[in-house]
Design brief:
Blueprint: H1 7-18, E1 26-29, H2 57-62, E2 67-72, H3 80-97, E3 104-109
Parallel strand pairs: 2-3
Antiparallel strand pairs: 1-2
């Protein structure tokens, strides 16, 4: 079977490599936060917030991944060295199949 950067194929590659029996690794689109600019009184422009959320710079910087890879916590190695090896192997595989411009983050799930 030929694999490409489409989500279903990337999920299959990851599950075949890391969760062969239960196939619990999945991918979702990232969450993109829109910045809201609130004008200062000196700018003399209208301010209408309504039900908008105001995010900090840290919120906007941290939540801009194109996709998230969710991995069951049961697959997480106990030792720090094994964990680093696991994550390195997973990143290598993801980077081989994802589009070059896409960013991602690996999340552990219960």
């Amino acid at each position: 079977m030929s694999h490409n950067s489409q989500v279903c194929y990337l999920q299959k590659v990851l599950n075949d490599a890391f969760d062969t029996e239960l196939k619990r690794i999945y991918i979702e689109n990232g969450i993109f936060l829109q910045a809201l600019y609130v004008y200062t009184p000196e700018e003399q422009l209208p301010v209408y917030i309504d039900t908008q959320y105001i995010y900090s710079d840290e919120d906007l910087i941290g939540g801009q991944d194109d996709f998230l890879v969710f991995v069951p916590i049961e697959l997480k190695p106990a030792s720090p060295i094994a964990l680093e090896g696991f994550l390195s192997d997973m990143r290598t595989l993801i980077n081989a199949y994802k589009l070059a411009s896409k960013t991602y983050n690996i999340k552990w799930i219960e």
